[in-house]
Design goal:
Layout: E1 2-7, H1 13-22, E2 35-37, E3 43-48, H2 53-59, E4 64-68, H3 69-75, E5 80-84, E6 90-97, E7 112-115, H4 118-127, E8 133-136, E9 152-157, H5 161-165, E10 168-177, E11 179-183, H6 189-210, E12 211-219, H7 223-229, E13 237-240, E14 246-254, H8 258-267, E15 271-277
Parallel strand pairs: 1-3, 1-4, 7-8, 7-9
Antiparallel strand pairs: 2-3, 4-11, 5-11, 6-9, 6-10, 12-14, 12-15, 13-14
The chain binds adenosine-5'-triphosphate and magnesium ion.
Residues 49-51 line the site of magnesium ion.
């Protein structure tokens, strides 16, 4: 049985549960339950506060966990970062009151900075040879300057709107984060095997969402040119249309190169281009 620690409720939960579901692992988490198990994969779930996840995995109470890289870094536990998951992307930034001129990191020398991330902030300041007074608070960091608790803050930002609405402006990014799958160091052979099965499924889901299935029509004399633009997994599928001299070409295209390739396909004479999501992709 592989034990996974997942945030019970918060910004990581929905995407963590969705990923597990997309991996075909079903479980029931009744309201208020802290433990659940799957009926179709040997997996048990511990539903926790995200702060506790690195410690549980480091101690081996859980074998693996899904948590933000920011929390992993801050907790300084000895863990394996098994795979980056691409969701809950955010950054840890320094912010100062909006009406103050920012004159570089040196201006924070001797100032007080409120944060929930004293270790990440501390090592950043040290690296920059700045000594500030780090004021650790566990939540609502962004109000600290307006109530006179600190001169600046170091907090999690995604869009920056929370900072703005508290009269602050972001001046330095000190850490970038996303959700990661962490693992206990030294898992036994049985658990490793289960983890490999899970990783295989996670990669199939990730490959699926990084790629699109594309179908288009083209005159037969353009097939070669278009096939060169769409190499696909091995080579594209080419099927004859009912209209003489025309074919339908099917392939897979990477999300990152999508718009660039679509332009080229149109120039090459492709028509009726359809783009369809891929649920899973086994390479
Ligand atoms: P808990 O009650 O479990 O301790 P929390 O309040 O500490 O939860 P959340 O706000 O749910 O934590 O955030 C969990 C993680 O999600 C953060 O550690 C960070 O990695 C990420 N995160 C935080 N804020 C954002 C955001 N605005 N956008 C995207 N990801 C975020
Ligand atoms: Mg927390």
């Amino acid at each position: 049985m592989l034990r996974i620690a997942v945030q019970k409720s918060g910004r990581l939960s929905e995407d963590s549960f969705r990923l597990i579901k997309e991996c075909g692992i079903h479980f029931n988490n009744g309201v208020g339950k802290l433990k659940a198990s799957s009926h179709n994969f040997p997996m048990e779930f511990l539903l926790l506060r995200d702060d506790d996840i690195p410690g549980y995995v480091a101690d081996g109470v859980a074998d693996i966990g899904i948590v933000g890289l920011n929390v992993v870094e801050e907790k300084e536990k000895d863990l394996d970062i098994v795979v980056k998951l691409g969701f809950s992307k955010c950054r840890l930034s320094l912010a100062i009151p909006r009406n103050e001129e920012y004159a570089g990191i040196k201006m924070l020398e001797g100032k007080s900075i409120a944060t929930s991330y004293p270790k990440i902030l501390g090592s950043y300041l040290k690296k920059n040879n700045i000594s500030s007074d780090i004021h650790e608070i566990s939540g609502s960091v962004e109000i600290a300057p307006s109530i006179g608790l600190a001169d600046a803050v170091c907090d999690i930002v995604s869009s920056g709107s929370t900072l703005l609405s508290n009269g602050l402006k972001e001046v330095e990014t000190i850490f970038t984060s996303e959700a990661v799958l962490v693992g206990h160091k030294g898992l036994g052979a049985e658990k490793k095997k289960l983890l490999d099965q899970l990783l295989f499924r996670i990669r199939s889901v990730q490959n699926g969402s990084n790629n699109k299935y594309i179908l288009l029509n083209a005159p037969n004399h353009k097939i070669e040119e278009i096939a060169n633009l769409l190499p696909g997994m091995r080579s594209p599928t080419v099927l004859p249309l009912a209209t003489e001299g025309w074919s339908s070409i099917h392939s897979v295209i990477n999300e990152d190169r999508f718009w660039e390739i679509i332009e080229k396909l149109k120039e090459a004479g492709a028509e009726g281009i359809l783009v369809v999501p891929i649920e899973k992709m086994i390479l």
